[in-house]
């Protein structure tokens, strides 16, 4: 065992890592590199064997771990494991603390295990986390900081801490799961972008999900989306002191917003223009809000307006998050396969005047009626696939009766998407925007939202290549 005097006391016994997936592998590898005693518990023997082969940790089934729970000093769980998982319930009943990999990294960093503590900038919300995190990391780098995007984007927080190259600023995209398992995390600055129903099955209620998200706001600087009424009300209820807001409207004092086509800082300066609102990737209101949120955190750390403008001028959104796949013949094709719930699809559709909307998949119990109703005037046609297509079609016919509706019953992922793209290609006219914004999860037909977006792009490019030259 390591003699490192900076290790937190709870790491000086035998640590149980719950889960042998990507998170469990990373956590186990870091703990073993520190010379600590680690046991990995998972019911997937192949996954356990892979972790043991790489890290030389001990391993056992979850049943065996439950029978020996008193032998451990701490449990580090993979973030996706629910609080009602029997192994985690037994650990809590036995008086053991259960934390996640982000909380583990936080404690090691605060203890100075990997040198002087870093600056932590936390980004969370229902939608827009990845884009905002990437924007913020770019702004921090342009501002002269040794910063890196970590968490659910870039590299795991634990890997960034243990890496050979020192990172001074951790720009962390954090999920509600990670925040739930991070009871003492207090980032230097944090933002909650928005809140909408998601992962209710995991947290038990929307309120519990929302409260987990607000753990990102416990630091010196708290930033919230002021256009989200529920979020503003919740921040007030839990006594978040003087949060900085961001809004699509002209900013009041203490806000960042938009005035005369410019992103403006009226929180850390007096109506300071930061960058043009036009040309931000991804296009539309969602991209502007993400840029404002990132700019708010960057400004709180002293990043000048010029660096923010430079970062945004070269920023390109990651694939499947509002990426323009093609712009041909006056028709724009957008891949927002990441819009896996109605809230995300709402942002994806907003700002376009005439939309050919490709959607469908697993609604996960979500009601899309309000989404369809609010965008009915801009939906030229809706092209539907997936297991919950019947529910979606019913909503379209009830709330957007003027829209053309095309449905595929195919469960073949390529065939279904090819059919919808073909219909979109046939009916699209100059001025239309074809938007893949499913408002639903993808696992009924695809390996993930990335594959869904890739197949959309491949089908589209085939049509473009076969189109006659003008």
Explain the layout of strands and helices.
Blueprint: E1 14-18, H1 22-33, E2 37-41, H2 45-55, E3 58-60, H3 62-67, E4 74-77, H4 86-93, E5 98-100, H5 101-110, E6 119-124, H6 129-142, E7 147-151, H7 157-162, E8 169-173, H8 176-180, E9 189-192, H9 200-203, H10 206-213, E10 221-225, H11 229-237, E11 244-246, E12 255-259, E13 262-265, E14 272-276, H12 285-300, H13 305-314, E15 323-328, E16 331-335, H14 342-349, E17 355-359, H15 369-375, E18 379-384, H16 389-399, E19 404-407, H17 413-427, E20 433-436, H18 449-466
Parallel strand pairs: 1-2, 1-4, 2-3, 4-5, 6-8, 6-9, 7-8, 9-10, 10-11, 11-12, 16-20, 17-18, 17-20, 18-19
Antiparallel strand pairs: 12-13, 13-14, 15-16
Helix pairs in contact: 6-12, 6-13, 15-16, 17-18
């Amino acid at each position: 065992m390591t003699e490192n005097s900076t290790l937190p006391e709870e790491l000086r016994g035998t640590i149980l890592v719950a889960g042998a997936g990507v998170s469990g592998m990373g956590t186990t590898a870091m703990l073993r590199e520190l010379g600590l005693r680690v046991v990995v518990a998972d019911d997937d023997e192949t996954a356990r064997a892979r972790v043991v082969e790489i890290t030389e940790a001990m391993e056992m089934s979850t049943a065996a771990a439950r029978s020996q729970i008193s032998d451990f000093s701490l449990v580090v769980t993979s973030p996706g494991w629910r609080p009602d998982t029997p192994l985690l319930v037994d650990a809590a009943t036995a008086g053991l603390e259960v934390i996640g990999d982000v909380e583990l990294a936080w404690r090691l960093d605060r203890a100075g295990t990997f040198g002087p503590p870093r600056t932590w900038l936390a980004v969370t919300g229902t939608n827009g986390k990845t884009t905002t995190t990437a924007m913020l990391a770019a702004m921090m780098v342009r501002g002269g900081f040794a910063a890196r995007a970590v968490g659910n984007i870039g590299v795991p927080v634990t890997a960034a801490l243990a890496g050979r190259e020192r990172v001074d600023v951790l720009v962390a995209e954090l999920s509600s799961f990670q925040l739930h398992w991070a009871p003492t995390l207090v980032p230097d600055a944090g933002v909650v972008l928005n809140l909408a129903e998601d992962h209710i099955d995991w947290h038990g209620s929307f309120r519990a999900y929302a409260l987990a998200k607000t753990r990102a706001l416990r630091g010196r600087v708290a930033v919230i989306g002021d256009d989200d009424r529920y979020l503003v009300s919740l921040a007030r209820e839990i006594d978040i002191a003087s949060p900085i807001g961001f809004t699509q409207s002209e900013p009041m004092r203490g806000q960042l917003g938009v005035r005369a086509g410019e992103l403006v800082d009226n929180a850390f300066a007096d109506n300071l223009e930061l960058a043009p609102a036009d040309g931000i990737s991804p296009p539309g209101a969602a991209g502007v809000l993400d840029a404002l949120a990132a700019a708010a955190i960057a400004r709180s750390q002293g990043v000048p307006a010029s660096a923010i403008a430079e970062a945004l001028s070269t920023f390109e959104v990651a694939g499947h998050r509002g990426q323009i796949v093609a712009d041909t013949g006056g028709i724009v094709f957008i891949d927002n396969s990441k819009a896996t719930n109605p809230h995300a699809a709402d942002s994806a559709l907003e700002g376009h005047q005439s939309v050919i909307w490709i959607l469908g998949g697993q609604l996960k119990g979500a009601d899309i009626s309000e989404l369809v109703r609010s965008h009915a005037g801009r939906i030229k046609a809706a092209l539907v696939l997936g297991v919950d297509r019947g529910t979606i079609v019913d909503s379209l016919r009830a709330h957007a009766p003027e829209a053309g509706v095309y449905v595929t019953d195919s469960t073949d992922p390529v065939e279904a998407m090819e059919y919808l793209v073909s219909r979109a290609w046939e009916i699209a006219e100059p001025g239309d925007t074809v938007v893949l914004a499913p408002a639903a999860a993808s696992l009924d037909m695809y390996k993930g939202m990335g594959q869904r977006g890739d197949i959309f792009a491949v089908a589209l490019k085939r049509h473009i290549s076969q189109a006659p030259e003008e």
